Structure formats: C-alpha cells, structure tokens
Description:
Largest sheet: 3 strands, antiparallel
Number of domains: 1
Radius of gyration: 21 Å
Strand order of the largest sheet: 1-2-3
Oligomer: single chain
Helix content: 40-55%
Strand content: 15-25%
Amino acid sequence: MAESWEISIKNTAQKLADAxxxxxxxxxxxxxxxxxxxxxxxxxxxxxxxxIHLDADSLNSVPVTRVEGVGLQVNQDLYQIHAxxxxxxxxxxxRILTALLDAxxxxxx
Length: 109
C-alpha cells in the first residue's frame, strides 16, 4: 500500500512539473489583416505579441507608426483588443494552475 502511495505522489509531482514547464511562458499573439488592401495588393498582417514568463518578466512587441510632428503612435483600438486577449490568457493560465495545485493537494491528503 505504501509503495502505491509513493508511486501516486511521484506521478502527481511529475504532472505538476510538466504543467509548470508548459505554463512557464505564456505567449499571446494577436494578428490583424486588412480585409482589402488598397489597389488590390496583398495585405500585410500586423501582429502584436506578448510573452509573459512565470517569474513575471515580460516581452512585448507592438507595431508603431511614426507620425510627423507627434512621434511614434500605437493604434489604440488594436492595442486594446490585444490587451484583452492577454488578460483572458493570463486568467486562463491562473485557473489551470490553480486547478492543478488543488488536484495535487487533494492527492497529498
């Protein structure tokens, strides 16, 4: 019986380690493509990317436009959609990690 319990704990610990490895980096990429490019040409996708590491370090890639007399500008509508996607992904990761932790704790009781 004790051997079975030990195997169960080891399996659960491995599952937790695997899940943490998978969740160590959260990458959210939001791409936008114009429905129709001017002159019938190929539309160039615009992509915003956010990478969040488990230790809270993050890397953001946000395209900007240089506006004469103003400087660099971010398309606020596109940025808000991306920010919403990042928030949803972050909340989802938190729910998954919480559920996994609850499962491990129940195995240890």
